[in-house]
Amino acid sequence: xxxxxxxxxxxxxxxxxxxxxxxxxxxxxxxxxxxxxxxxxxxxxxxxxxxxxxxxxxxxxxxxxxxxxxxxxxxxxxxxxxxxxxxxxxxxxxxxxxxxxxxxxxxxxxxxxxxxxxxxxxxxxxxxxxxxxxxxxxxxxxxxxxxxxxxxxxxxxxxxxxxxxxxxxxxxxxxxxxxxxxxxxxxxxxxxxxxxxxxxxxxxxxxxxxxxxxxxxxxxxxxxxxxxxxxxxxxxxxxxxxxxxxxxxxxxxxxxxxxxxxxxxxxxxxxxxxxxxxxxxxxxxxxxxxxxxxxxxxxxxxxxxxxxxxxxxxxxxxxxxxxxxxxxxxxxxxxxxxxxxxxxxxxxxxxxxxxxxxxxxxxxxxxxxxxxxxxxxxxxxxxxxxxxxxxxxxxxxxxxxxxxxxxxxxxxxxxxxxxxxxxxxxxxxxxxxxxxxxxxxxxxxxxxxxxxxxxxxxxxxxxxxxxxxxxxxxxxxxxxxxxxxxxxxxxxxxxxxxxxxxxxxxxxxxxxxxxxxxxxxxxxxxxxxxxxxxxxxxxxxxxxxxxxxxxxxxxxxxxxxxxxxxxxxxxxxxxxxxxxxxxxxxxxxxxxxxxxxxxxxxxxxxxxxxxxxxxxxxxxxxxxxxxxxxxxxxxxxxxxxxxxxxxxxxxxxxxxxxxxxxxxxxxxxxxxxxxxxxxxxxxxxxxxxxxxxxxxxxxxxxxxxxxxxxxxxxxxxxxxxxxxxxxxxxxxxxxxxxxxxxxxxxxxx
Length: 749
Hints:
The protein has about 750 residues and is mainly α. Helix content is about 70%, strand content about 0%.
């Protein structure tokens, strides 16, 4: 008989202490893994490693601000870098243009950062307090464009428009370590970043305001009932995030300068978001460690002989995918993860015309007349537009296909894709190469390009599904950076990519040399794409996709393979985006990397939200709005106008243009129902019934008739409910619905 070894109290206590120590240092796992990877694959002197840690420390300040805002508002703040760049620009201009001392510029920028955080939260963010979280997330994209535009015009007030040089040294110091020379700006970064990290930890754990912020982030509704001023706490959060972003940008200005127009490089943003994802947006120590590790790897790669910036982007994309694969979803989902599904519950989807009104003559005539008018308008555009305007119309049609693909993935699937233009770029590269180098017809080349785009979407999307939440946003943004800088780089693939100038070729044997022919070809593809998307929405897969968006746990509880359905939406979305890319490269008669940069993906996402998620007509209107602004406004005003325009549209029309169209249609249907004396429950056209006086007894005849009607309704509903239960047990997808019960009530005088 085997005896269990006896463990002394000291041994048990030692094991508990060891487990506690392991839990305390677990946050160093991302840093340790990234440093080991760097030492094995990209060895570098310790001075380069330390310099990478400084770069990662500045990234950590940005990432912690993103995580702090996410915990408070449940959004990803894409304006985090620009939130600190504007006061940093002011501080730099005071030092460079007006000759202020380094410390006065630092204090002035710090005060400006505090004021900016208060103004942004009170004037913009608080306006979206009850809006869907995704709408507020997109509002931060518009805020980013607004702040960047302000930073673009700010130097003109000082009479200086170029100050890309570094800030002067705050003090006289120089230190050589590991073959690398560190100046006073670097030494100051070594002091400021640890102080900021420790101060943030003490603020959140020891101060009353910090504890209240953490508690309100966990249960904001409970905090309201307890009388905690949640909105004031959100103001404090945005102030702290603004200060962290300012310090990161000001320290960066001393190290590498602060260029105008692109304050926060895409690589910097992707690294900050990746670090936030690795820490699940709530583990601040893990976020800081991951950011430092990413900075070490980036600087070690830059140190290698013959290294290209595109190589850094490729490795960063690989690290993001690998990190998502090895860090699976937590067994016990946190409050942050559980709120991810709530992001979509308020997203409005356009309802179809009520069943009881579809056959009414005036409704049928109205729909037929509207579609006839739209069709006649679109088909006759080449007859009364100039060549340049036809070119713009073709671009809008192509981006309408891309918008439809994003409606499937984001509006219906509930997955945020911030690098969708990368799939368009993949389709452009494949489709353009097949027609330019192999002489294929555009129809066949577009199908092959769509298949490649579908595979790419599945590869990028699968690791994000394992983690859930907003991880797809980070993986697609990293893929967008990788595709624009590496996959579409002619120096890396000189013989595989299509040329800078290509012929438009033919589609199904029809030449596409003229703008009119190109317009009609893209219009035909748009019609086919819309038919595919509408067919998906009406199918069982479409209904399951909506159910996954609303409550994935409930769908899995019914035995539905949610992962397979989500991957199907990824594949269809990537297919349509790549097909649009194959059309776009021929419409542009050449391939360039600029249209597929990550910034363009953010604009694309903005376009769909402006139109209204879940609304295909709204997505087309959003494409018209965004690209119309790009075409008609001067270049120097586009950057500012899109940010202001986006915020105004979201403030006035939270449901987007698609919601406005739905409201207009429902208003017309209510008038038809009122004229015919119909009550349509789906239109909320309730009819008020005056109550009888309390002193008058109810008519016994009325009560008898009401009881008979209730009994008849219950008897009639029983077989319908039984049939529905049999269909659900048999796994019927619902295509052959039973004859609907007419719930239309005739109002009698």
